[in-house]
Amino acid sequence: SPSDGNNLRSPICCIMGHVDTGKTKLLDCIRGTNVQGGEAGGITQQIGATYFPAENIRERTKELKADATLKVPGLLVIDTPGHESFNNLRSRGSGLCDIAILVVDIMHGLEPQTIESLNLLKMRNTEFIIALNKVDRLYGWKTCRNAPIRKAMMKQSKDVKNEFNMKVTQIVTQFKEQGLNTELYYKNKEMGETFSIVPTSAISGEGIPDMLLLLVQWTQRTMIEKLTYSEEVQCTVLEVKVIEGHGTTIDVVLVNGVLHEGDQIVVSGMQGPIVTTIRALLTPHPMKELRVKGSYIHHKEIKAAMGIKITAQGLEHAIAGASLYVVKPDDDLEYIKKAALEDVESVLSRVDRSGEGVCVQASTLGSLEALLEFLKTPEVNIPVNAINIGPVHKKDVIKAGVMLEKKREYSTILAFDVKVTPEARELADKLGVKIFSADIIYHLFDQFKAYMDNIKE
Ligand code: GDP
Ligand code: MG
Asked: What is the per-residue DSSP string for 349-376?
């Protein structure tokens, strides 16, 4: 039968939460790498995907003596730089992430982006667990490297235990204020209704075995249907980037199906659908992340679920956040091209065509979508005249310059998580076009609002 649990793909897991709660560090800790230390300012710049094979999970969780059979082949973890990328992790309108880890700093409790992440998870109906990270920062904490959390707790002094219990109680209350029941996972008798909290330290590894086991057990117990492998290719572009020696490549998440070297594929591009052929299918070595430099493994074919780098001709204008389609010999290419366009058009069609408004530019389809949604909310209400995906070039400035004659304050570009070329900057200064750039949506809004208030005075 298709749903007896014998043919499961790996669950896809996202990490979300407020900045600096330790999202990247948690991944580093499970992988045994140090991406966090190598990042500019320690902030995740780009999305990555890491595959954790079942053997690795078994090894890391053996102290828990769970002895439960692992039915999933592994776990595919997406390291999102923030909730904006979560928007990219969709495929044909639905969320692509099977389960999320919501990271909360035990010393800080719920923070603004924790609540934003919560709202996104609710909106997409995504299951999640809560990693209550940085337990090692409790005053007097005794390190028990990589130990299961209950074992580590037994080693702590009475004071540490008290502080821990107090913090947990506070945070459970904060979640309740958000309408959510939460409980330490080993006390949680109503999984599904009550969300599980796993205390962790990404520095010394306490609680990491518990987190891994919980993710795997929970998904394979409750999502058999969703995780049953399907032949039909379901694949989303996460990132488009130039790699030395490979040209423009795309990083994709293959949710279902198989990709082969030589497959004809269709990807949405800014200038229409791109039809091309897979030249190479690359993955990093297991446990390494897609964006970490180093050698790749070449594959003739790859089965889902997996994070893959694809090299092919003509990918320069591919749009991150859009679906990837495979054209099989009997398929109607025109039909598939139309399907590829729909992804983009569903976002483009949200732009008000009144002819008055700012220009909006973002790095990916998902982030553009999130920004447009935000600008439309009644409290914000900023009209948009034009949109684009990718870096801000001179032509974008010229487009924004059109508004100079009509409504000067709208001759503005809101650049979200994209680069502005020096030529574009120069031209903007000359014409009087304003460019605001930020990598957090509400910072863009703050800048624009301050500018508008200034004009009014
Ligand atoms: P992100 O913004 O959520 O990805 O957070 P990072 O992974 O970049 O971590 C932010 C800072 O917190 C870094 O200085 C980390 O070293 C530190 N950090 C992360 N996890 C822990 C933890 O479990 N314990 C302690 N003491 N520090 C942590
Ligand atoms: Mg990070």
From this structure: TTS-TTS-SEEEEESSHHHHHHHHHHHH
* Cβ pair 169, 175 in contact under 8 A: no
For 154, phi then psi, to 5°, come to -60, -25
Which two tokens mark 123? 């909106």
**Is residue 203 in contact with ligand 1, taking CB distance under 6 Å?**
yes
Task: Determine the distance separating the centroid of ligand 1 and the alpha carbon of 412, expressed in angstroms.
Answer: 36
Beta-carbon-side half-sphere exposure of residue 416 (alpha carbons within 13 Å): 31
Confidence of residue 163 (pLDDT cuts 50, 70, 90): very high
HSE on the CB side for 17, CA within 13 Å? 27
Residue of the CA atom closest to atom 17 of ligand 1: 22
Mean pLDDT: which of 14-23, 150-159, 246-255, 362-371 is highest?
A: 150-159
Question: For residue 259, which of 287, 227, 298, 228 has the smallest C-alpha distance?
Answer: 298
What residues does the ion ligand 2 have nearby, CB within 5 Å?
A: 23-24, 44
Give bridge partners of residue 139 from the DSSP assignment.
none
Query: Cα of 31 to ligand 2 centre, how many Å?
Result: 14
Give me the residues paired with residue 16 across strands. 102
Atom of ligand 1 nearest to the CA of 202: 23
pLDDT at 359: 94
Q: Are 23 and 108 in contact (CB under 8 A)?
A: no
Q: Give the Å distances, CA to CA, from 363 to 2, 50, 243, 414.
A: 38, 22, 17, 12
